[in-house]
Design goal:
This protein has about 100 residues and is α+β, with helices and mostly antiparallel strands. About 30% of the residues lie in helices and about 35% in strands. This is Acetyltransferase.
Length: about 100
C-alpha cells in the first residue's frame, strides 16, 4: 500500500447521508440510508478524474470496515457496490 493510500480517510457526512473519500480535492462518495443496524448503499460515485484509480474501491473498503466496526449489516443496492462486495469475500459476513 502506498503511503498516500494510508493517509486517505473515509469520512461520514451525515448531513448528506454519505461516506466520502477526498483524493486531492476530488470526492468519491457512497450514499447511504441507515435503517436500524442495516446500512443500505443505493449509490456510489467517483468523479471522472478519479475513475480507474481505485478510489471507489478504497472508498468501499472503508465503508465496509466502518460498517463492521459499527456492528452494521449492509444491503448493496448500487450495482458497483454489489459487485465490489461479491469480489471481496472477507466482507460477505456483513451482507443481510
Amino acid at each position: 500500500m502506498r503511503e498516500t493510500d494510508m493517509m486517505e480517510r473515509i469520512t461520514d457526512n451525515p448531513a448528506r447521508s454519505r461516506y466520502e473519500l477526498d483524493v486531492d480535492g476530488k470526492v468519491a462518495f457512497a450514499n447511504y440510508r441507515k435503517v436500524g443496524s442495516t446500512l443500505h448503499i443505493p449509490y456510489v460515485e467517483a468523479p471522472p478524474s478519479l475513475r480507474g484509480t481505485g478510489a471507489a474501491g478504497r472508498l468501499m473498503r472503508g465503508v465496509m470496515e466502518t460498517a463492521r466496526a459499527d456492528g452494521m449489516k449492509v444491503v448493496p443496492i448500487c450495482g458497483y457496490a454489489a459487485h465490489w462486495i461479491r469480489s471481496h469475500p472477507e466482507f460477505h459476513d456483513l451482507l443481510t
